[in-house]
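Data availability (excerpt). The following record was deposited with the supplementary files.
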Amino acid sequence: MHTTPSLPEETITTWADHCRTLSNAKRLRILLVLHSTPTPTPVTCLAKQAEMSVNHASRALVYLAGKGVVEGKRWGKQMLYSLKDTPVVDFLTYIKEAPPTDVE
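Predicted structure:
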């Protein structure tokens, strides 16, 4: 019989929330762009690199900031965004390096 190591409920809940955050393709695309960008970046640049409208990128970034995954700083009239140091960064590194596999 195979046993599963038990994890604290808080850990399970946190990772379930991270998975919900990453489950949207637009948000994941923005996160992958941010992961490749070493400095805080304006929404317009992120939108262009992620190949989406500024409106969609802005909405995704506001959501991600609310989840604590990205940080936004105002610079004049622009918002600059960067990744916060969370376990999501490790996950983004993993998916960029690992080949996709089919799940059956």
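Summary of structural features: DSSP finds five helices and three strands in the chain.
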